[in-house]
Every structure is written in structure tokens, then in C-alpha cells.
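Protein 1 of 2
SEQ + STRUCT:
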Amino acid sequence: MQIESRPMGSYATNCYIVSIDDKEFVIDPGIGATPWVLERVRNPVAILNTHGHFDHVWSNRELQKELGVPIVIHEADTFLIEGEQFALELPPSRADITIKGNRGSQQIELGGIPITFHHFPGHTPGSCVIEIGENWFSGDFIFRGSIGRVDFPYSDPRAMAESLIRFKEIDYDRPLYPGHGEPTTISREQRTVESWIDYLRR
């Protein structure tokens, strides 16, 4: 497996290209991601969204038109990708495959590759970690040394606290690639997550 990343736009949102078995998955194509992605993909399978905020999905529609691949996102965030956000005229896109369920995990198969979406709501209603192989792509759920904001419209601090409790209880380690900043691991972030849970419960 090969993982390439590049921070996109003024929010430095990490767009990832995951190549496995000569197939490529694009994760969170943000503002300006299209040229970079098109230079690198040869056999794209899907566009995967960790959640629906504009800085993670801005290039969804443009890339889907160029690549002819499905967009996958949790059903609770489909409304976010379909129109204006934060007074910004987001290029609207529509999900072809929706992940279902509440605070659970769903595995799908795309191009013969198993991909698991772990639902961790709080930052957005449909925020997910995407697991491909041994790697977690966490979007804005959790970062190196921090967590996603919960003061946006449709954010839910209580749901985020519950998600972090579930994250803390994971009994295995994985590399973790966040939506902003540097990579980390599950075990590294578990060491400090209790302080965030306490903060959210105040």
C-alpha cells in the first residue's frame, strides 16, 4: 500500500491518495485538489469522505466528473455536501454510496478492496474514520494532540465525548492519518484523550 498526501487550500486540509493492488482511493479532496489528484491516479476506484465539511469535499464534484467514480460518505452528512456551507457556495455533490448506522462500523467492498467506516459523530453528525488495510484516516475526528471542533453548526459536544470514550477503549494500535497536521497513532492519542473527554463534559 502507498499513501500520498498534500494539504489543500487555506485550511491545509490533507487530501490522501491510497494506492493498493494498483487501485486508488481519493480521501477528502479539498479546495484545489483536482490537479494534484489527476496527476497521480491511473486506476481510481472511489472518492471517500470522512465527513461533509467544505474544506474536505470541495473538489468532490469536479473530480467525480473527471474520474467517473462514486462518492462515499456517511448518510448523516449527505446534506452537508449538497449545498452552501458557512455562506460559501460549495460546489454541490451527491453521494452514490452512503454509510449507514449509528456509532458503529460498516465494511464495504470497492474494487475488491474492503474498506471500513467507523462512525464517530460529534464534529459532524456523520463524521467517520476510514480504515483501509492497517491504516486509519480520521478526518476531523482526532488529530495529533487534538480533536475536532464542536462549536460548528450541527456539531455535538456530547456525541464527541461519547465517540472519544469509544476511541479510548480500542484495544489495538493503527497508524492514524488526520484531516489536518501530521500522522500519529491510535495509542499515542489514547494517552491524552481523557483530558478532552473531561473538557467536553464541563
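Protein 2 of 2
SEQ + STRUCT:
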Amino acid sequence: MRAVIRVPASVANLGPGFDMLALALQVQNEVVAQTTGSGAVTVDLDPDPDDAQLLDPTRNLVARAYVESCERLGVAEAERGVHLSCVNAIPMARGLGSSAAATLSGVLVAVALHRAAWDEAQILDCAAHFEGHVDNLAASLLGGVVICAPGAAVQRIDAPDDLHAVVFSPEARLATSEARRVVASTFSRADAVFNASRCALLIRALALRDYGALRDAMDDRWHQRQRAALFPALPALIDAAYDGGADGACLAGAGPSVLALCSRDPDAVEDALRSAARLLEVPGTAMRLRLRNFGARVEVRP
């Protein structure tokens, strides 16, 4: 049996929504999974990985999530044999949900090949074992803008189709674990109210397409200032995005990429980010991406 899994990139937080908000972007990883009779899990990657350990199924997130899902589903080891061909278009360790996409791909391979009747909540629960939080996972699975409230079902709304995303992705990587370590575990009442109010403004701005409100709505007091210590160019890049005409801008997830949302002239925003990066001597790539209102796709063939 053969399954093709396509999972989009995602950006979490969107400024104030730390571990709560995320949106899907129109760039995706693809995994072609082919069952084998050996019982073993094997992996190949395109492009060739910088880290050869990613070819080891005990270290590859797609393979690990697949095996974990098989264990939860009660699939015998002898029946788990699969070859995973992974085509990675999502930049790794840049704040664009690459680990969530890999994890979700592995879970969906298991569900598809072993004909599991898991619903969205069960898929997210299994994948969250690796991620620890569901924001990126939910955006990649469901598409659009997701709201992840602890103790409640994930909710989503469509992302505006006339809003563009411009992402500046530095060459330097930043591990999510490192970026999370610098974020405080408690916040003052004033900062909690500030971020909660910005989350409300942000959902309203997206739902009503009130793009003039995005600059205030995407402000944050919980994590961006702390993470700027790991990526000092962050404030200047956000300012450059606004100077270029962005409606809203923020650190993309844990970083170090920067996300700008713009309803007009994304070329100018892209140019502004490139120029600022050159002045700051931060090598990287600027990308224009559409927001994506559909999530992961699964195709199964005998």
C-alpha cells in the first residue's frame, strides 16, 4: 500500500498568541510512504540532509511519529514495515513549523496505512507527544488560523484570501527548545492583560479584514523581547517590514524568521526586509507566501 502525505508550513504565536494562535502557509512537505514486508522503517530525504542522523529512523521525526502512532494503534512490529521518502520544502529550525509538519506527517502515515479511525483530536493528541503544544500542529492539520485554548477543542477560522505573508528566513537556525528557555514562566497582570487584549484584537482584525488594526494587534510582551536576545536583528527587521508597508509583523513562531502580513504591495515589504537584512549583515532568504485555508492532505493507493 502507498500513501502520499502533504503537510503545510505554519507560523505560531502571530505576536501575542504564545502557544495559542497559528496560521498555515502555502508551502508544504511531502512524504511518500510505501509498505514493505520487512517490518523495518527506512527513510530517504530530498534534499540530502545536512545532518546524516536524520536518515536514522530512530532520530527522524517522521519515522518516530509513525512508530509511536503504530504503538498506540496496536500495530504489531512485524506489520509496521514502511519506506518513507520525504521531500522537505519547509525550512528547518526557522520558526515555520518544520518539526510539527514532520511529526504530523508520521502520524498521518500510520493512520492512512493502517486504516485507523482516529479523529482530528486523536491525531493532534498523538502528535503533541513530540511537540508539547498543538498550535503549529493544528494549523498544519486544519489550515487557516487556529485558536488553541487549553481544555477546549481547537477552533479555526479562514485566513483572509487577500492577505499576503512575507517571510524573511535567516540562514542561521534557532532550536525551538533554546528559544523556549528564555521565555518567562510567569507574567505580570499588566502583561497578561496586554497580550490577552491583543489576541482578541488580532482575531477580530482577521475575521473582519480590518488590516489597519493588525499593527497594534500583533504587539507582544511575553516572548519577542526575550527572544531578541538570541536574535538581536529582530526589532530592526520588524521595523523594516512596517516601513515597507506591512500591516502587521512579528517573530515567526520561536524564530528566527520574521513574518509580515500585508494587504497591499508585498513586493515592497519583501524588498524592505532584504535591504534591512543586508544592512544588518544577516544572510537569509525572503519569501512571499499565500495563507492556506486547507490543511494536510492524504492520498492512499493500494
